[in-house]
Structure formats: C-alpha cells, structure tokens
Amino acid sequence: MINRSLFENTDIAFALKSDSELERAYFLFKMISSQPLVRIGTAATNFALKANLPVEGLIRSTVFDHFCGGVNEEDCLPVIDKLYLKGVSSVLDYSVEGKETEQQFDNALEKILKIIHFCDEKDAMPIVVFKPTGFGRFALYQKKTEGLDFTEVEQEEWNRVVERFDAVCKLAKEKDVEVLIDGEESWMQDAADDLVEQMMRGYNTDKAIVYNTLQCYRWDRLEYLKALHERAKTSGFKVGMKIVRGAYMEKERQRAEEKGYSSPICENKKATDDNFNNALTYILEHTDDISLFVGTHNEDSCYLAMELMEKIGIHKNNNSVWFGQLYGMSDHISYNLAALGYNVAKYIPFGPVKDVMPYLIRRAEENTSVAGQTNRELELLKAEKKRRKL
Fold this sequence. Notes:
Blueprint: H1 10-13, H2 19-32, H3 35-50, H4 56-67, H5 73-85, E1 88-94, H6 102-121, E2 127-130, H7 138-145, H8 152-175, E3 178-181, H9 186-203, E4 210-215, H10 221-235, E5 239-244, H11 249-259, H12 269-284, E6 290-295, H13 299-312, E7 321-326, H14 331-339, E8 344-350, H15 353-369, H16 371-389
Parallel strand pairs: 1-8, 2-3, 3-4, 4-5, 5-6, 6-7, 7-8
C-alpha cells in the first residue's frame, strides 16, 4: 500500500538546501506567486539585458542559480554530483531557444553530441534531451505537417534535419544513453512525430533508446499513442514515451480561434488530468513494449503511477519507468521518490545567462498561471523553515 503522505516529508525534500538557499527559494516563489510582479520583473529583465546593463550577476545569484545548473556542461558538474548523492539523476537541457540558422542548428547538434559523450562518463547522467526546433526551422516542420511540397532547397534543408536526428540517436544507441525528444506546437508536431518514429524504428530494436513526448493536454494524444503501439508491435520496435501535460496551451487556443479550427486542447483541467492518467495507465500495462518517462509535478499522478507499478508488479528501479521534474521545482516529489528507490531524474537547464532568460521567464509565467503549484512550493518551504527552527 502506497503511503499517500509521502510528499509531505520536507526533511528529505530539502536536505540538499542550505538555510540561505531555502530562504532564496522561498523569496523566489513568493515573487512568482504575484502576477503583476512577474510581469514587471520580466519587462525590467528584458530591458536590462537588451540595454547591456550589468545585471547578469544579480540574475545569476537569484533566479538563474535556482532553476539552472550553470552556463555550460562543466559548470553543471557540482549540481549533478550533489543530486546523485541523493539518488537523483540529471538530464542536461541546453535551454537556448529560438534559433533559425543552419550554423546554429549545427552548433546545437555538436552540443547534444558532446553531452552524450559526457553522459557516457557519468552514471548520474543516463538521459539526454533536445527539441525538434533545435535542429531545424519551425516553418519547415510546419510545412511538412501541412502536407505541402518542399522546394529543392527546402528538401535539402529537411535532409539535414533528419541527419542531425540520426547522428544523435546513433551515438546514443552506441553509448546506451536514452534520448528524450520534446513536444512542441501542434501545427508542427506531425512532422516531428513521424521523424521520431523513424528513429525508433532504427534504434529501438532491442529496447527504448529514443523517446517521443506525449502532450496530454491534447485530446487526440492517447489515440496517437495506441496507434503507434500497434505499429511498433507489427514492425518489431519498442516505443519510448515521455508523458507531460503540456506547455503551449494559451498559444494553441489562441491560434485555433484565430484560424477558425477546433482547439486541439482538452476542454478543462480535469479532462487533461484524465487524459494524462489514462496514458500513464495504458503505458504501465504495456511495459514489455513501451518505456515510460513520467514528466510531472502533479502529486496525484505520481501516486497513481506508484500504485499501478505495485499492482502490476513493476519493480521500483525497473529502467522502463522513470519519474522526472524540473530542477528548482517539486523537490518534495523528486527526493522522496528517489529515497524509496524509484528512478528519478531532474531536468537541468543550462546555457549563457542571456540566452536562457526566455526559458526562465516562461517558467515564471507557467508557475503564475498554475497557482496551486506555487502555493504548494511555498507551503512546503515554510514547513521546512519551521522544522529547522524547532
């Protein structure tokens, strides 16, 4: 029987935080809980960085160091080692977004290949991650998703995108490192899905190396998962799937309204939660064919996964099931799961301070929009501060 008060243990959750780091975390989540402050802070930060004002040190010592591992791979090593002492693995996430040139895509490829070599030397890093648009232009994926013909130049460009995916998956298979490929907006996702499936067919012959991402706030995703599973059984490859609730809801709904098509997003939060839990259940019932990365900060979904694993007889450290949260958030989930022997990984964003700011701003805005999340963080931090005083 799973203990449903497991995530209340703040002693385990914040064991790695010094008193000053605990105070900083409390201060940051207090700031993030206020929508006007997030808006003002975002505008001021953007202005300061564009005007080249000397604010990087301030950003680095507050929000950056709380949510990011460092400015490069080597800079992240102390964080990776510290987490691993508590049984938590690391997924280095090069969080530089919005690139558009071939040179930038080649640079991103080199960065991911370097991280795989890095993973090969460290037990604490069994997984790597990248975004499809890190390797090719958004508009190119969109054109392919819409079924439009490429020009000769675009076809050559697409071939290079495929080569970048292939280079990463090939090296990952050689080094036995798992690759999580993030989900993005629905109007480019079909092209990414097809390309990821192509990689699964090539590299997931014995076990899941390549993972796609299922954004469960889309009501059509469970259907997609089941169809992919059938194709995998027929063609003899394994499926790797990271499940998340999703990250582009406002944008998705706005575009559907502007373009006059029905929204791909579930009608409410309950429908999204049900969709996520149904996908979770389906995968755990088929772990012979599908490996799972549960990317969630939702406590109920974690409890459900633990209960299903116990009921089905899936061992806690079975490599087919991983739990993942973002660095700087939901430590009460990550460290308490790891303390019980589950496979847990933290996504650790890194990159130059200026380049990672769009990622950090999105984190702050997401936390503001999910009020319960920030309040929960504050409640637990407060409980730990009180526990330490006593």
